[in-house]
Each structure stands twice: as structure tokens, then as C-alpha cells.
Write a structure and sequence with these properties.
repeat; 35% helix; alpha/beta; single chain; Disease resistance protein RPM1
Length: 652
């Protein structure tokens, strides 16, 4: 299984990365570099030809190398070392190198044998093709020969009924034999490119009909080390393409889309899931624990249904010392905490405990210094000490922090999706530049903090960001213009004005030019802001929710867009009178007016926007509902426009 090599390659590339500061590689550099070169070469060999005879050897060699290297790293970090040093004797991968050399030698011999066998098969096939051609050439009645083929084909009936019968026969054959069905579906898996196989098997960790967000799935694949590094694209971009490829091959199903039409959640058909579980057992890739049965000794990955009994949880500590991933699955969050289950697995890279409610944060997790993915639900703050998890890439959960400055010690951090991060003064935060960080859910500026500048300079490659200025008591400029990769921005409780006018507690937001989705919630807005928003040429989604507006009326000229702009979705703000026509948001797809009881009516000419597909009113006044109904009726009766739909929820 060539896919077993990629996590090892990811580890070695991380150690040998000249820009990293976590490891010191001195005289052992040539040895580790040689190991990386050999593993990479073997992976390329296996990408060209599947040598199933060597699957178990390849797996054992890859796992052995991972265990030696990561055990060395974990041992030194737990001893208090700030940097882990790799010398010529620590760790000693000589045995691994010898085993790898043996596998390489066998691989090359097998490939040479396969090449010779293939040449013989090609020669034999060519002989079979040439014989009838010679006969055809010597036969003067070649036209009769051709007609014979036509006659043979003409005997096959090709009506719709016949094809339906064939389809029914296939379905019956599948239904009659589960083993045959398994064999058929196995073909789809077996013919996958090597890099997609672990991604497909990973879906077996989740129960039947379980829906998982695409973003979560891709973050897990990255943390597992499945995704190959590509200097031109991020690991997440690569992983999203792989997910799309699995969907196109009908191995993973798209289950949900958001209101903008983008893919959101995925699942796997139960029959294909059974195939993945069996394949995972065969390949020792994943152990799925559905009940109180004990776990096999040191499975690489474990998926456990926590809604079932946890009676044997203590036994897990003795059988999982080399386990890398623990995924807890359940229908609802459990209030009981498992004993010390999982807490002896010092080499863990993935720990997903989102379905367990912790009253206090389990500080045993600070011992898992190899973690790259942590998902947890905790009712208390995370105490000092989380900075020990120096390899952390993704942190997800309903959590907040005693010492938020520790987060800026995670040089590998890519995704930070938590309840809240409270930013202190710059000198207390001691910001470091987090070049790999792409997502931060919500950050707030405490009353003691003066500006957002230090924080914003530390996240140059952020793509999704939430900022909350509700605690601020100072006028400030929030300059986001240098965040060129920022695409999704949520601003909460910010007093936004277009120009600083000297009034108290007002903030000027300088938006980035590449933003695609903007949410303004609970903000204070004046008319100048509208013109600024209309200058965001790549903006597709605009939501202005529960904001106070300086004027009760907004006019159409304030919403004029540059040519070519397209809004897929607009959720509007608190207004009494709205004056607009089809020239504003000329490519609007979806208009949502949410809980605005004071808005008297929807402008009638909004219905003339040619791209408009849906008007959605939720909790709005009777007069605004009546105006929307009139718009849709006029479009249908006067223009035969039945594409425009109306959705009314919770009318007042």
C-alpha cells in the first residue's frame, strides 16, 4: 500500500524543512535526507505499478520508521526540551533503512518481471490480431466477412425494454450475493490512484448516514499527513480537489449545500462504507469500534461510537500506545467523561472528542505533544500549558483560553475554530507571524487592548476571519487591506463609518480587495459605508444583519455597483424606507430580509433584476410581505417569469 508512505514523507519533510525552528538536524541530516529520498523513490515506483505482494512489508517499514522518529520527538518534548535534536545516533533509523533497501530491491525485481511478462502478453496479443487480418487479406470475399459481423451485431436487440431487463438482472445479481457486491465495489476502490485510497478509507470511521462537513474532512486528511505538499497550492486546496474527485467517482456522496449553492457536507453509502471497513481491517488502516468489544493491539486509527458502552475504556490504555488517531462519534454529546481512555497514546496526531462534554479541560491532553488535530467541547477555560502542543494544526471546539498568547507559539497552526479568542495588549500577546494560519473564527479586542494592528500583522495569509469590537472603548482604524488572501470576513458590533469624524468609539474598517463574503452583524453603519461596499469588486455574498443605520432611508445611488459585479446573496439591514430598482445589484440571485419589522415595503422594481431567483422574508411586517407577493405576481402575470420564487417565514 503506497499510501502508507505519504505520512512518513510528511514527517521527514517537516523535520528537514530549512524554515522550521522546532527541530535541530545536524550531522544526521544526510541520513534522514537519504531516508526521505528512498521513501519518495519507492512511492513513485508504486504509483506506476501496484505490487500487492509487498503491501505488508511496505506498511511495516513505514510504521516502524514513524514510530522511531516520533517517539524520539515526543520523548524529548516531554522532557522539557525547547528543540528536539536529531543526531547520528538519535534516533537510529539504520534498521529501517536496511528494511527499506530490501523492499526497494524486491520492488525493482518485481517490476522488471512484470515488464517482461507484459511484453510477452503484448506479443501474444499482436499475434492473435495479425492472424485474422492475414486470413481476411487472403479471402477474396471480404465483403461477406464484414456482413457477417453486421449480422452478428444485428441479432442483439437494443430496445428500452431489453436494457431495463438487463438492468434488473444486474440489480438482482447484486442483491443475491453480498460478496459479489463487495467484489464489484472493491474494483472501484482498487482502481483509485494511491493518494485517494486513504481518503476514501477514512470515511469508514463515520456511521451510516453520518454527514461530515467538507472543511472538517479536509483538515483531518491534512493532519493525518495524507496530502502531498504542493508549493504552488495550499494543502487544503489540494485536499478539496481530492474530495471532489471522490465525489465524481461516486465513492462519496454530496449530502448538503449551503444557501449559496456551495458544497457543505458529505457522507458515504452504507454498502461502500462496509467495503471501506473491510479494506481498513485488511490493511490495518482503521479499527471501527461499535460496541463494548476490546480493541485490537495498537491499531493505527480507532473510531469509537461513544453512544455505546464505555465499560472497557480502561483497557484501551494498554492496547493503544502506538495509536495515531482517535475519533469519537455519537448522536449527541455525552455528559459522562470516559476514565483515562486514550490517555496513554502519547503518539496521537488526531484526537476528536467533540461529542464528549468535559466540565474541566483534561490536562492529560497536554501530554499529546504530537497532536496535529484537536476537537473538544469544554465548559471551562483551557488553562496555561496548551503551548506544549507545538505541532498543532487544527483546533476546534466550544472553548476559550486563560492565556490566549500561547496560541501564537503554534507555528504550524492552520485552522482555529473556537468560541472566542480575547486579544490582550500587544506586549502581552507577544505576537509571532503565523504564516500557515488560514482560519480564525472569532476574535475580540479586550478593553485593555489598544489596536488590532499587532494581531492583523501576525496573520498575513488568513482566508477566513471573524472580528468582534464590542468591548472596545477607543476610536481606531481596523486595517485589513494588506490581507490579500482574505475571502470571508465577519464583523460583529463595530461602529463603522466611512471617514473618521472625531466622535467617540468609532472605527474605520479598511476592507481587503479580494473579499468574496462579508457579514456585518450588530454594527453601526452610515451611508458612506454603502459606497465602500460597492467598491469590493469580488464580493458575492453580503449579509447586513441587526445593524443600526444612521438614516432611515437609503437611496439607489448608494448601492450602484461596478460593471461585472455579481451578488449571489444579500441579507438586508434595519430600514424603514428602501428606494431601489433593477440597476442596483443588477446580478443579485437571492434577496433575504430577516426580522425587519419596520421595513414598509420591498421596492417593486427589484423584481426586474434579471438574475433574481428567490426573495426570502423571515419575521417581516405584513406590508413588506404584501409588497413581495405583489412583485412575484406581477413578474408571473406580466412577464411570464415563473423562475422567481417567494419564501415567507414567520410573518408578523
Amino acid at each position: 500500500m503506497a499510501y502508507n508512505l505519504q505520512p512518513l514523507i510528511t514527517i521527514l519533510e517537516g523535520i528537514l524543512d530549512p524554515d522550521q525552528t522546532r527541530w535541530i538536524v545536524d550531522e544526521n541530516n544526510p541520513q534522514l535526507q537519504s531516508l526521505l529520498d528512498k521513501v519518495t523513490f519507492l512511492q513513485k515506483l508504486l504509483d506506476k505499478s501496484s505490487l500487492t505482494q509487498l503491501d505488508s512489508q511496505i506498511r511495516e517499514v513505514a510504521h516502524q520508521a514513524e514510530d522511531i522518529i516520533e517517539s524520539h520527538m515526543v520523548r524529548h518534548i516531554l522532557s522539557g526540551s525547547n528543540c528536539v535534536r536529531f543526531t547520528s545516533s538519535k534516533p537510529c533509523p539504520k534498521k529501517v533503512t536496511r528494511n527499506l533497501d530490501s523492499v526497494l530491491e524486491q520492488s525493482e525485481k518485481l517490476m522488471e518481471m512484470e515488464d517482461n511478462k507484459m511484453l510477452q502478453q503484448v506479443d501474444s496479443a499482436m499475434e492473435q490480431v495479425l492472424k485474422p487480418m492475414d486470413m481476411l487479406h487472403s479471402n477474396s470475399s471480404s465483403s461477406n466477412y464484414q456482413c457477417g459481423w453486421r449480422g452478428l451485431l444485428s441479432k442483439t436487440e437494443r430496445s428500452l425494454d431489453v436494457w431495463k431487463k438487463i438492468g434488473n438482472d444486474v440489480k438482482a445479481a447484486i442483491a443475491e450475493s453480498g460478496e459479489q457486491c463487495y467484489s464489484m465495489l472493491s474494483l472501484s476502490y482498487n482502481h483509485l490512484p494511491n493518494h485517494l485510497k486513504p481518503c476514501c478509507l477514512y470515511m469508514g470511521a463515520y456511521p451510516e448516514d453520518y454527514e461530515i462537513k467538507g472543511s472538517r474532512l479536509t483538515h483531518l486528511w491534512v493532519a493525518e499527513g495524507f496530502v502531498k505538499s504542493n508549493r504552488e497550492r495550499s494543502l487544503e486546496e489540494e485536499a478539496r480537489d481530492w474530495l471532489k474527485s471522490l465525489v465524481e467517482r461516486n465513492l462519496i456522496m454530496l449530502r448538503g449545500k449551503n444557501k449559496y449553492g456551495n458544497s457543505k457536507s458529505y457522507s458515504m453509502h452504507d454498502t461502500m462504507r462496509d467495503v471501506c471497513i473491510r479494506k481498513s481491517d485488511e490493511d490495518k488502516f482503521l479499527h471501527v469500534k461499535n460496541g463494548p468489544e476490546l480493541i485490537l493491539s495498537n491499531p493505527r486509527r480507532v473510531s469509537s461510537d461513544i453512544s455505546n458502552s464505555m465499560n472497557n475504556a480502561n483497557v484501551l490504555t494498554e492496547s493503544m500506545s502506538l495509536t495515531r488517531s482517535v475519533i469519537g462519534i455519537g448522536d449527541s454529546q455525552r455528559d459522562e467523561i470516559p476514565p483515562v481512555a486514550f490517555f496513554s497514546s502519547r503518539l496521537l496526531t488526531v484526537l476528536d472528542l467533540m461529542y464528549i462534554n468535559f466540565e474541566e479541560f483534561p490536562t492529560e491532553i497536554f501530554e499529546f505533544v504530537n497532536l496535529r488535530f484537536l476537537s473538544i467541547w469544554c465548559r471551562s477555560r483551557i488553562p496555561r500549558g496548551i503551548s506544549r502542543l507545538r505541532n498543532l494544526q487544527t483546533l476546534i471546539g466550544y472553548i476559550w483560553f486563560d492565556v490566549p498568547s500561547e496560541l501564537w507559539q503554534f507555528s504550524e497552526l492552520r485552522n482555529l475554530n473556537v468560541r472566542e479568542i480575547q486579544l490582550l495588549k500587544d506586549e502581552e500577546m507577544n505576537y509571532c507571524v503565523l504564516k500557515k494560519l488560514q482560519i480564525i473564527s472569532v476574535t475580540t479586542l479586550t478593553r485593555e487592548a489598544e489596536t488590532w494592528d499587532g494581531f492583523l500583522k501576525s496573520i498575513p495569509n488568513i482566508q477566513k476571519l471573524g472580528i468582534d469590537d464590542g468591548y472596545s472603548r477607543r476610536s481606531t482604524t481596523i486595517d485589513l487591506s494588506h490581507l490579500h488572501k482574505l475571502q470571508i470576513l465577519r464583523c460583529n458590533y463595530i461602529r463603522i463609518i466611512s471617514f473618521v469624524d472625531g466622535s467617540d468609539c468609532c472605527s474605520r474598517v479598511m476592507f481587503p480587495c479580494n473579499i468574496r463574503k462579508l457579514v456585518l452583524c450588530g454594527c453601526e453603519i452610515n451611508s458612506g459605508v454603502l459606497g465602500i461596499l460597492c467598491e469590493l469588486h469580488k464580493l458575492e455574498v453580503l449579509k447586513i444583519n441587526a445593524c443600526s443605520f444612521k438614516s432611515e432611508e437609503t437611496r439607489d445611488e448608494e448601492w450602484e455597483l461596478a460593471d461585472g459585479d455579481e451578488f449571489l446573496y444579500l441579507e438586508f439591514l434595519i430600514l424603514v424606507s428602501w428606494i431601489a430598482d433593477e440597476t442596483n445589484f443588477s446580478r443579485l440571485h437571492h434577496l433575504r430580509v430577516d426580522n425587519y419589522i419596520y421595513l414598509e415595503e420591498i421596492p417593486s422594481r427589484i423584481g426586474e433584476i434579471p438574475t433574481l431567483q428567490l426573495i426570502e422574508l423571515d419575521g417581516c411586517s405584513k406590508s413588506s410581505v404584501a409588497s413581495a407577493e405583489t412583485i412575484v405576481e406581477e413578474q408571473q402575470s406580466d412577464y411570464d417569469n415563473y423562475d422567481l420564487k417567494l419564501c415567507i417565514l414567520n410573518p408578523r
